[in-house]
Amino acid sequence: GAGVSQSPSNKVTEKGKDVELRCDPISGHTALYWYRQSLGQGLEFLIYFQGNSAPDKSGLPSDRFSAERTGGSVSTLTIQRTQQEDSAVYLCASSLKYMNTEAFFGQGTRLTVV
Amino acid sequence: AQSVSQHNHHVILSEAASLELGCNYSYGGTVNLFWYVQYPGQHLQLLLKYFSGDPLVKGIKGFEAEFIKSKFSFNLRKPSVQWSDTAEYFCAVMGSSGGSYIPTFGRGTSLIVHP
């Protein structure tokens, strides 16, 4: 497809379970971002991948959160031992590597921890 | 570190009213500036962007924004809003920091336009 694709669109999980969220960026985009959107809190940066460079993990809120990007394309965000405060919409975006470019967002995954 | 402040969290207008949403950023170097819009039930999409050149930029649907470097501001404007402009609006800044280009977003402004 032409846009950023995320799956699943909705995920309900029990507290303590692990979840995996998937992102397919736009073909040819070397930069990939994960953000978390909570009600009234705007977009919180989580992690950034740029080509083959080491990812910028400075936004990950705890060691329960991790992400990988395979082959410079698809990315998976994993949350281990989910907590209720992890409930949010997780957004993925991709862009070209260089400055003077915008990020394109997917529809997001709405995660609900019960 | 870069940061973005959006002054209005909730704005309610009647159709045909003029709109101005404030956005101030903090970053010491070269920046790219963006306004994104999120219509109900839809994904974030770009409204307009500033990279360089003319500080008055025009976007889709009649929106425009002015970059005032001395004030670190990038306010969004529209002379006459429509009911279909009801949405969440996010300002974002992206600066160059050690080769990483990570957009930082404001908390967003919820705009409701009454018909």
Descriptive notes:
The complex is a heterodimer of chains A (114) and B (115). Chain A is mainly beta and 114 residues long. Chain A is built from no helices and 10 strands. Chain A has strands spanning 5-7, 10-13, 19-24, 31-38, 42-50, 65-69, 75-79, 88-95, 104-105, 109-113. In chain A, the strands form 2 sheets. In chain A, strands 2, 4, 5, 8, 9 and 10 form a 6-stranded mixed sheet that branches. Chain A has a 4-stranded antiparallel sheet with strand order 1-3-7-6, with no helix packed on it. In chain A, a hairpin with a 3-residue loop joins strand 4 and strand 5 (42-50). Chain A is globular. Chain B is mainly beta and 115 residues long. Helix content of chain B is 0%, strand content 57%. Chain B contains no helices and 13 strands. In chain B, the strands form 3 sheets. In chain B, strands 2, 5, 6, 10, 11, 12 and 13 form a 7-stranded mixed sheet that branches. Chain B has a 4-stranded antiparallel sheet with strand order 3-9-8-7, with no helix packed on it. The interface between A and B is medium-sized, with 27 and 26 residues.
